[in-house]
Design a protein that fits this description.
8 strands, 12 helices, binds nicotinamide-adenine-dinucleotide, Rossmann fold
């Protein structure tokens, strides 16, 4: 199975990054969205990504110019997918929207196309039947800031063809990702299966008055050698996302999550302290205390 032509569906936060990264590694890319507006925004985004690649990856002007020239833009679903070896879906995290998308895609895409979802929380088995080709469907999950946080979690469902799985592992490597194969379907993939309970435990120590965020982070950092602790991570992920994860649990009457939601709402959300993006969360930015030389000395 040779991948040459890649169609990325959804020109939002992740879709634009996936399109740029894929084209940077010399694949032909079509970026598809349902209207012109996100595609126009994507063009501007590619200009700023060019600067980021030049600064962070030492890319040359010629490389970024060629990257942009290999990307074409389309609002015509059939035209955009008609010669795709691989179609990467990065449309909103909404099961209804994704189901509708896959039913349509299954009908128009060529038989050779492999479909991948970039969904963060929805499982491939939820859409496998809708695709009409479950054996050629799996998840390829990227992280935000793909050029720098270059993980690609690859996860099939029960009837994904192992050869298709291997093809996507190779594709991920070919676009500069660290390919992380997952052998069974798992909500949260590897990263969030580790991270969500870790943050939950840290929050429990805090909201139950066992200790304070700086001490908890300090304990983790000093004892494990990690460069950052759970509350530093919360600031990077963004307090809104941490809030949303807890809110979902709180809505199912999870008492711990309800306590966390209340604390985050009152101390952070209501005060506009949303973490790194607003310059303040558990720490103040751009120079958070946990990065200072004496944080671990006292
Ligand atoms: P986004 O809201 O920024 O972009 C979604 C885009 O999809 C929009 O441009 C929208 O116009 C377009 N769209 C809507 N319906 C469509 C359709 N039927 N066909 C084609 N395009 C359509 O979303 P995002 O943050 O880029 O997230 C996209 C997916 O990637 C989600 O499944 C999300 O879970 C996943 N993801 C996001 C992040 C992140 O940090 N944002 C990280 C990893 C994975």
């Amino acid at each position: 199975m040779k991948i040459k032509n890649v169609t990325v569906c959804g020109a939002g936060v992740l879709g634009t990054q996936i399109a740029f990264q894929t084209s940077f590694h010399k694949f032909n890319v079509i970026l598809y969205d349902i209207s012109e507006e996100p595609l126009e925004k994507a063009k501007a985004k590619f200009k700023s990504l060019s600067e980021v690649y030049k600064t962070n990856l030492h890319a040359t002007q010629q490389q970024v110019d060629q990257t942009i020239s290999r990307i074409t833009f389309s609002t015509d679903f059939k035209e955009a997918t008609k010669d795709a070896d691989l179609i990467i879906e990065a449309i909103p995290e909404n099961a209804k929207i994704k189901k509708k998308f896959y039913v349509q895609l299954g009908k128009i895409a060529p038989v050779k196309s492999i479909f991948c979802t970039n969904s963060s929380t929805l499982l491939p088995s939820m859409f496998a039947q809708e695709t009409g080709r479950p054996e050629r469907f799996l998840a390829l999950h990227f992280a935000n800031n793909i050029w720098k946080l270059n993980t690609a979690e690859i996860m099939g469902h029960k009837t994904t063809d192992p050869k298709v799985f291997d093809t996507i592992v190779e594709f991920a490597k070919a676009i500069g990702m660290i390919a992380l194969p997952i052998y069974k379907e798992q909500p949260g993939y590897i990263l969030n299966s580790l991270l969500v309970p870790f943050i939950r435990s840290a929050m429990a120590l805090y909201v139950n008055d066992i200790s304070d965020p700086a001490t908890i982070d300090k304990t983790w950092m000093k004892a494990s050698g990690a460069p950052i602790g759970p509350f530093g991570i919360c600031d990077i992920v963004g307090i809104t996302t941490i809030y949303n994860i807890n809110k979902m649990a709180a809505d199912t009457k999870d008492a711990h999550a309800q306590k966390v939601v209340k604390m985050l709402q009152e101390n952070f959300i209501d005060k506009g302290k949303l973490g790194v993006p607003t310059g303040e969360g558990f720490y103040s930015y751009p120079n958070p205390a946990y990065e200072s030389a004496d944080f671990l000395k006292q």
